[in-house]
Inverse folding.
């Protein structure tokens, strides 16, 4: 088994800053914007993006988490785990521009589950998707609006995202 | 009738010798060796026992033939090394008349595998209020010598005293199922902390001990013999020990399952472990084993209680009480009494054959292997693993998943081979029906 | 977890996982659409051999919130009263598509018997068996306690809490299940009842057992759980006079006034107002009885989710 680092701590920082600028450009009215991360690491990234955007615009940005465990389509084959918290910001998501955030985009099924979960929580005006890594191999017609890095990979490889808040350090590695 | 020369058997685990069988009785092996019509059986490595005698069996016929018949029960008995069983009276209808006990006796002869000794009920219809016709049953063809309301307790002291007196006149014994009904209403398992945790109604040991205490004094007052069925508690052993010390003519039995199983097995709520009296604590099991070792408990009796699947395919409180026992008795006694050193092979023969025959007034078992005596014999491989039971019609065997020692390979009933190499001999192939009690 | 039969053998890890999952599920009730697709395609059958409206409805609500299909079998007037065995009833219900069987039965051990019998493949949830266990009740009680005492209850146990349970302990499966679970979660349990209603052999139980309710109240417990006087489960005539019981074992307003302000008043329901609990106490600010009902639905959702995920 070998691990190859594809993004270092400074790479990740630069990438998130770029995505933050892209979001600001795409959503000019900051009171319309809600950043919703998919736990665990998507939610951590959502929080970072919100802070970065506030750092640039000096405006408060609404953010939260949306858990997809109970909407997965693979519960029968072992996708069973304890649900993580779903915490919406005080203003909710009705009529908002929601930017869903996840660490890795792969088959697209997690994002599909998130879209399903959102229908029970409200009705956003627009939903966009921001991911740190897009590793290809989509099984559903889903694409990200903001991508940190495109990382072509094979099915045998694993893409591991580590974040300071959950794992003690920031890296993205490919393990084969 | 075939003659047999059995070679190289270890008699009760002691000296190795040959055994001769001819015309239904034991003979000097030299008299059959080399003769025409003699079948030779190599028994080297096997232990020879006198045929076992069960003082407590339920054969269910008449009325309960779905669970067992006299034929299937006899076959189960033969596979377990038994040559005589006492069939309890709680059939449908109850065996409380000479006609009923004689019918059971005849069915037993027709089956042909073991001596079926009918037990007569003490009270009419087991109702506990009117004595049955004890004298008539004792005088009938079956010559009943054991009376019991087993399944129920003879609770009325006046009736019990009178029954003891009458039985005594015929040289018979009353076998009491000691269970005070007022103390065990709705009871399903041993009383105590476990019953409270599991939410099941408890059967306190005092319900057994108090009846035994009363009965031994009643027996003393009329000078009669008393036999106590299936002791289940340390306290009961103490009461019987006290009575014997006092000179009272009391005998006692214990089942194989009470020597090995405890109430902990009820935690899973599997009704195969539901039995009357119930499984109790480890301390009780140890006291019962020591009771056999010291002779306070005279015999092991199976209380073989077959049940149809539907009687146990329900929640614990609704299930019927009872376990199979004929086919596993020998193995359980090896594990519970012989292996820990409470009994040697001679002791096993005493508790499973000689003494039960004595208590039931059954002749022919006083001297194992003695020339001239009926050839009741079991040959066992005590080192082999026990086989799987396949004689009884029912399957409520609590030892299903246990690794028990000992296998009965050959059984001879009055010189007729009933079990050959661990398999039943077909009914058509059994010898002629000779060799009843003399 | 293929079955949920009781709390006596429930590990602390499993218990906490159920409590945490139920906590997440409780948020669903407040949503725009209080429904999840998680158990779509699953069939839950309520197999009730004993009367119960509340528990049955609670399980029904839980199943429906998860988009499962629900069937209900009630014993009275059914094939069971015509002599159909437990085995046949269970197999028939499974043949009609049951994935999870929720059973309430009058015999202790019935759920365990069914689960281990080999007659069915479905998961079994014990909704109350005789006087033995009622695990979902204990779990929802523990969840209610935890939520009231902790700001963020996730991952937390009940260490340091003292709970007093009062009533017909001998015949109460709720008392037993609560005692085992509270103990596992680190709480101290005191069982209170008249001597006639305390079971045998309780010296080995992981609880203090006493007959003096007022003395138990003096120890300033964190919660008092009142049990319903069980008229229908005692053999023969009730052995305790109602007047005597109300005088010595009822949570009157006078007794409730002696509780510390943070102490909770609990009751598994249905209540006999004026018997084991005074009306005013049942409706007081300290009463979390309705929270218990709410938590009952989310806890049963968590249990259904857990069993659904465990099937092979």
């Amino acid at each position: 088994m070998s691990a190859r680092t594809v993004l270092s701590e400074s790479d990740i920082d630069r990438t998130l800053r770029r995505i933050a600028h892209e979001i600001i450009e795409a959503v000019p009215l900051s009171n319309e914007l809600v950043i919703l991360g998919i736990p665990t690491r998507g939610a951590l990234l959502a929080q970072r993006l919100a802070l970065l955007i506030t750092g640039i615009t000096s405006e408060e940005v609404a953010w939260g988490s949306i858990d997809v465990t109970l909407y997965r389509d693979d519960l029968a084959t072992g996708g069973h785990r304890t649900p993580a918290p779903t915490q919406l910001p005080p203003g909710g998501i009705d009529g908002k521009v929601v930017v869903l955030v996840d660490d890795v985009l792969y088959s697209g099924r997690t994002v599909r589950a998130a879209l399903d979960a959102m229908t029970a929580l409200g009705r956003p005006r627009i939903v966009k998707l921001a991911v740190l890594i897009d590793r290809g191999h989509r099984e559903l017609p889903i694409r990200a609006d903001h991508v940190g890095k495109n990382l072509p990979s094979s099915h045998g490889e694993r893409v591991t995202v580590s974040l300071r808040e959950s794992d003690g350090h920031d890296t993205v590695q490919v393990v084969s | 009738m075939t003659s047999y020369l059995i070679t190289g058997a270890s008699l009760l685990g002691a000296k190795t010798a040959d055994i001769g069988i001819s015309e239904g009785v034991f003979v000097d092996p030299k008299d059959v060796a080399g003769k025409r019509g003699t079948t030779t059986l190599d028994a080297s490595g096997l232990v020879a026992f006198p045929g076992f005698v069960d003082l407590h069996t339920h054969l269910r016929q008449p009325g309960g033939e779905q669970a067992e018949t006299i034929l299937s029960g006899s076959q189960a008995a033969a596979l377990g090394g038994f040559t005589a069983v006492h069939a309890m009276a709680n059939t449908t209808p109850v065996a409380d008349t000479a006609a009923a006990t004689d019918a059971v006796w005849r069915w037993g002869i027709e089956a042909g595998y073991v001596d079926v000794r009918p037990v007569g009920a003490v009270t009419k219809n087991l109702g506990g209020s009117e004595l049955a016709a004890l004298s008539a049953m004792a005088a009938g063809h079956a010559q009943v010598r054991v009376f019991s309301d087993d399944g129920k307790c003879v609770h009325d002291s006046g009736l019990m005293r009178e029954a003891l007196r009458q039985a005594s006149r015929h040289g018979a014994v009353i076998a009491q199922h000691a269970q005070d009904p007022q103390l065990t209403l709705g009871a399903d398992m041993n009383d105590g902390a476990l019953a409270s945790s599991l939410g099941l109604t408890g059967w306190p040991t005092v319900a057994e001990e108090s009846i035994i205490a009363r009965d031994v004094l009643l027996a003393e007052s009329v000078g009669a013999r008393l036999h106590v069925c299936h002791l289940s508690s340390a306290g009961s052993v103490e009461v019987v020990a006290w009575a014997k010390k006092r000179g009272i003519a009391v005998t006692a039995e214990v089942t194989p399952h009470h020597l090995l199983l405890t109430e902990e097995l009820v935690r899973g709520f599997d009704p195969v472990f539901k039995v009357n009296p119930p499984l109790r604590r480890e301390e009780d099991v140890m006291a019962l084993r020591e009771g056999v070792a010291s002779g306070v408990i005279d015999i092991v009796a199976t209380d073989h209680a077959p049940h149809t699947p539907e009687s146990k395919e329900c929640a614990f409180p609704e299930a019927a009480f009872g376990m199979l026992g004929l086919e596993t008795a020998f193995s359980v006694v090896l594990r519970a009494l012989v292996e820990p050193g409470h009994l040697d092979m001679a002791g096993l023969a005493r508790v499973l054959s000689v003494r039960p025959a004595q208590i039931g007034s059954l002749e022919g078992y006083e001297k194992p292997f003695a020339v001239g005596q009926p050839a009741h014999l079991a040959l066992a491989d005590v080192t082999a693993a026990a086989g799987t039971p396949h004689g009884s019609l029912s399957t409520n065997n609590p030892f299903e998943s246990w690794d028990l020692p000992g296998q009965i390979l050959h059984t001879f009933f009055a010189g007729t081979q009933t079990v050959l190499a661990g398999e039943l001999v077909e009914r058509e192939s059994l010898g002629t029906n000779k060799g009843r009690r003399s | 977890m293929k079955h949920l039969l009781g709390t006596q053998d429930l590990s602390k890890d499993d218990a906490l996982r159920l409590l945490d999952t139920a906590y997440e599920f409780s948020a669903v009730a407040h949503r725009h659409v209080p429904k999840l697709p998680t158990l779509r395609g699953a069939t839950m059958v309520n197999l009730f051999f004993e009367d119960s409206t509340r528990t049955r409805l609670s399980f029904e609500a839980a199943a429906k919130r998860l988009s499962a299909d629900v069937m209900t079998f009630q014993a009275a007037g059914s094939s069971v009263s015509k002599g159909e065995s437990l085995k046949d009833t269970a197999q028939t219900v499974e043949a009609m598509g049951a994935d999870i069987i929720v059973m309430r039965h009058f015999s202790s051990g019935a759920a365990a018997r069914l689960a281990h019998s080999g007659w069915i493949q479905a998961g079994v949830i014990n909704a109350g068996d005789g006087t033995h266990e009622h695990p979902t009740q204990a779990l929802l009680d523990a969840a209610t306690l935890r939520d009231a005492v902790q700001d963020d209850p996730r991952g937390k146990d009940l260490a340091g809490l003292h709970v007093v349970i009062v009533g017909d302990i001998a015949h109460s499966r709720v008392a037993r299940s609560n005692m085992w679970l509270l103990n596992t979660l680190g709480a101290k349990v005191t069982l209170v009842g008249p001597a006639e209603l305390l079971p045998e052999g309780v010296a080995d139980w992981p609880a203090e057992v006493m007959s003096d309710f007022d003395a138990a109240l003096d120890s300033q417990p964190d919660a008092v759980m009142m049990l319903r006087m069980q008229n229908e489960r005692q053999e023969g005539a009730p052995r305790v006079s109602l007047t005597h019981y109300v005088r010595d074992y009822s949570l009157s307003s006078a007794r409730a006034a002696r509780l510390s302000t943070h102490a909770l008043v609990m009751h598994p329901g249905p209540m006999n107002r004026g018997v084991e609990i005074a009306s005013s106490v049942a409706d007081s600010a300290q009463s979390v009885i309705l929270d218990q009902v709410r938590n009952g639905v989310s806890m049963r959702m968590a249990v259904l989710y857990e069993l659904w995920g465990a099937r092979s």
